[in-house]
Design brief:
The chain has a single domain, classed as A middle domain of Talin 1 (Up-down Bundle). It is built from 13 helices and four strands. By secondary structure, the protein is mainly α. The strands form two sheets. The chain has a two-stranded antiparallel ribbon with strand order 1-4. It has a two-stranded antiparallel sheet with strand order 2-3. Helix content is 80%, strand content 2%. Helix 4 runs antiparallel to helix 11.
Length: 322
């Protein structure tokens, strides 16, 4: 395939992703205002699911087509990119203040899912059986039901967090907000598909293996909605929603995307994936260290996270087989 169509597709896909994420920010904040729901809950549910549509589509499609490496690498690579690079870049642009007590359960659920996959590997071998995948999927479904039922609502007499941190805008009708959210999801979906198509075709041009393509180009491309959403949300002062979106997206990826993919076709976890899971767990603990010391991620801490991610990518390129 010629390079020019691939490059054009990549640019067009990125444009759709950025516009879709921006629209989703507006719609989700509007919905939070309407229902007086805490923005962190919106980030953990609606936004994290919407921005993870590309990962879901790619991994499920890959599982159906028998492309096991792509299905698994896309999710694990996306989670590492979300945690280390996206939050790292966001903190470098503007230090992120976080009330971690609001995200403690979600954080450990995300880490626990990765540890669960590691235990499956060391106890049962390199194939994740369907029951284990179903457990991941079922636990996430239960978590969402519990989260919605326990969702704190702000008092009608108190200003919404969004209203105090974002320039006041005219309140849009709920039907329009829902339409905006659906339209944004469609843009994210189309942009993700187009971007991944371009990224996959760039792989052979650059001489990269399927696993490396899944862990780098594809996972980064499918995480662009999270990247754009997080940067925009942090710029607008919605720190809790931004961090909640990243953690919620990681939970959705590893429990729903991998869980559903594994129910369709049992997934194989190779030694390379085990290494990637250890990197994800280590990165999560580093995030925990940073965010619990002063309830924020400073610029230098964000830089450390981003540099570690770059080192991880270099490792993949130097040792592509492992």
């Amino acid at each position: 395939m010629h390079t020019l169509p691939v490059v054009i597709g990549l640019i067009a896909g990125l444009a759709l992703l950025i516009k879709g994420a921006d629209t989703f920010v507006d719609a989700s904040i509007g919905i939070a205002r309407r229902f007086r729901v805490s923005p962190v809950i919106i980030g953990l549910t609606i936004v994290s699911m919407g921005t993870s549509i590309p990962e879901l589509v790619i991994s499920v499609t890959a599982a159906i087509n028998g492309a096991n490496d792509l299905a698994v690498a896309n999710v694990v690579g996306a989670n590492i990119f979300n945690l280390m690079m996206i939050l790292g870049l966001a903190a470098m642009v503007r230090p992120i203040s976080v009330r971690f007590y609001e995200l403690t359960a979600e954080f450990w659920l995300s880490v626990g899912a990765a540890v669960f996959l590691l235990l499956i590997y060391f106890i049962l071998g390199d194939v994740i059986p369907r029951p284990a995948s179903f457990v991941l999927f079922a636990v996430y479904a239960g978590y969402i039901i519990f989260l919605v039922k326990q969702s704190p609502k702000t008092s009608k007499d108190d200003p919404s967090p969004s209203e105090t941190s974002i320039e006041s805008k005219s309140v849009k009708p709920l039907s329009r907000l829902i339409f905006m959210a659906l339209l944004a999801s469609a843009l994210i979906f189309a942009g993700g598909q187009l971007t991944v198509w371009a990224a996959e075709n760039l792989g052979p041009i650059l001489g990269l293996s399927e696993r490396v393509v899944g862990l780098t180009i594809v996972s980064i491309a499918t995480s662009l909605p999270e990247l754009t959403f997080t940067l925009i949300a942090c710029k607008r002062g919605e720190n809790e929603m931004a961090v909640g979106t990243i953690i919620g997206s990681n939970i959705f990826n590893i429990m729903t995307v991998l869980g559903l993919s594994g129910v369709i076709l049992p997934l194989t976890v190779g030694l390379g994936t085990v290494t990637d899971l250890f990197v994800l767990v280590a990165g999560s603990l580093l995030f925990l260290l940073f965010v619990t010391t002063r309830n924020k991620i400073a610029r230098w801490e964000g830089a450390v996270m981003a540099v570690i991610y770059v080192g991880y990518i270099i490792y993949l390129l130097v040792f592509p087989v492992m």
